[in-house]
Amino acid sequence: MIVNVSAPMSPEEVAARRAKARRTAWLLGFVALGFYVAFIAMSVARS
Amino acid sequence: MYLLFACFMFFVGGLMAMIIRAELFQPGLQLVEPQFFNSMTTMHALVMIFGAVMPAWTGLANWMIPMQVGAPDMALPRLNNFSFWILPFAFTLLLSTLLVPGGGPAGGWTLYPPLSLQGGDGFPMAIFAIHLMGASSILGSINVVVTIMNMRAPGVGLLNMPLFCWSWLITAYLLIATMPVLAGAVTMLLTDHFFGTSFFSASGGGDPVMFQHIFWFFGHPEVYILILPAFGIMSEIIPTFSRKPLFGYDAMVYATAAIAFLSFIVWAHHMFTVGMPLAGQLFFTLSTMMISIPTGVKVFNWTATMWKGSLTFETPMLFALAFLFLFTIGGFSGLMLAVVPADFQYHDTYFVVAHFHYVLVPGAIFAIMGGVYYWLPKWTGQMYDEKLGKLHFWLSAIFVNVLFFPQHFLGLAGMPRRIPDYSTQFADWNMVSSLGAFGFGLSQLLFPYIIWKCVKGGAKATNEVWEGARGLEWQLTSPPPYHSWTDPPSREVVARGVQH
Fold first, then answer.
1. B176, B490, B491: residue with CB nearest A31
2. A5 forms bridges with which residues in the sheet?
3. CA geometry: angle B166, B168, B173, nearest 5 deg
4. Greatest alpha-carbon span in chain B
5. What is the C-alpha to C-alpha distance for residues B86 and B394, in angstroms, rounded to an integer?
6. Contact yes or no for A17 and B76 at CB 8 A
7. How far is CA A26 from CA B138, B139, B333, in A?
8. pLDDT digits (tens, 9 = 90+) for B174-207
9. Which of B63, B166, B168, B224 is catalytic?
C-alpha cells in the first residue's frame, strides 16, 4: 500500500488544474503550427 | 503500448539491418536488388528513429513521469491515446510502400531532392506516414510538457525533480520546435511532386540545397531528441548503483539545456560539402565543437558520481557504463567530423555510419534497455533474471563493437555509404562487421524473452527494488497502482524521494 499521501485535491482545484493543462496544450499546439506555417512561408518567400 | 510497439519495430528495423549486412557480407550483388537495398537502408533508418527509439522514449515517459512528479497519470490521457494510435497506421503505411510499384522510398532517410522526387507510388505514402509520425511526436511532447508543468505534486520543484523528467521536458520542447519544420519540408516535397511548385527543383528556379538546410534544422535537434532522454536515464541509474547522489545536479540541468540550445545552431555541419562561405564553415565547426563542453560536463559528472561510490554492477549499471564509454567514442568521432577539411574526406563514407551508430546504438538503445531493466521490477513487482540480463548485456556490448568499430576503418579507407556492392579491398572488415551484426541481432532475442519471463514470474521485488534508489517512483508499491499517485504524496514522502 502507499503510505503518507497529502489531502486529496478539492474538485475546484482539480478543475482549475485541468483548465490550465488544456490552455498549455493549446498554446504549445499553436506554437508547433506556427513553426510549420513559418517555414513554408519562408520558403515561399525565397523561391 | 508504446514500449511494445517500439520493441516490435526494433525487430522490424533490425531485420532490415540484417538484410543490409547479409548483402554486404561479401563484395558483389548477393541477395537483393540495388533498389531494394536502398529501400532497406532508408526504411531501416525511418523505422528505427521514428518507430523504435522515439516511441520507446515516449513509452518510458508515459510510465515514469507521472510516478516521478507525484501525479496520478499523464495530464491528457485521451491525447496520449490518440498520439499512440496514429503510429500503427503510420508504420503500416510506410512499410506497405515496399509492396507498391516503384518500391519503398530509397533515397535515404534524409529524403534529399531531386532524388526523392523520383520515387514511385510509394512516395506520397511515405510523406503521409512521416506527417503522421510527426503529429504523433508533437502530441506526445505536448502531453509531457503539460504534465511536468501542471501536475507536479507540492514540493516537487523544477530544480529537484528527477533528471529523466528534465531531459524529457527539454526534449519535448525540441520536438515541438523541430517536428513542424520536417513536416513543412516534406509538405513542400509533396507540392513539388504533385502540384507543380518548385521549392527544391532547380529547373523551376528552386533550390535543392534549401531542402538540406531545412531538413537539418530539424535533423540535428532530432539527434538530441533521441539522446537527451538517454542522458536522463543515465542520471537515474548511475547514482543508484553508486549509492551516491548525482554529482552536480544543477550543472546537469544547465548542460542539457545548453546542448538543446546549441543543437539549433549546428545544422550545416551535415552539409559542409555542398559548398558554403568560409565564415559559415568556421561558424558551424566552432558551434559543433562547443557542444562537447556541456557534454563533457555530463560525462565528468557521471564519472564523479561513481568516484568513491559503493559500486555494484547489476544489468542496468552495466548498460549505463557501456553507454558512457561507447557514446563517448561516438562523440569523439563526431568531433572529427566537425572539422571541415576532415569532413570533406569522411563525408558520405562508412566513418559517418560508424559515428552515428555509436551514438545511437550504445547510446540511445543501450540507455532504453538499461532503463527497462532498471524499472522492470517496479512495473511488474518481480525481479528479472539477472544472469540472463548480464548475458544479454555482454553479448550486446561485444557484438556492437564487432559490428560498428570496423566501419571506422572502412570509412577511413574510403568506402561510401548506401552501396550494395563494393571494391574487394573492403571485403575483410565488411565480413567482420556483418558477423557482428548477426551476433548482435540474435542476442537481442534475449531481451523480449527476459521481459516475458519477468512478467510471468520471478522473485518478489521490494518497493525500493534497488538499495541506492532515490525518487518518488520508489516510494510506490511494486507494481504501482493503476493511477500511480491518486492523491499527491505528502511533503515528507517528497522530501525522501527528491533528488537533492
1. B176
2. B489
3. 100
4. 68
5. 36
6. no
7. 12, 11, 41
8. 999 999 999 999 999 999 888 888 888 888 888 8
9. B224
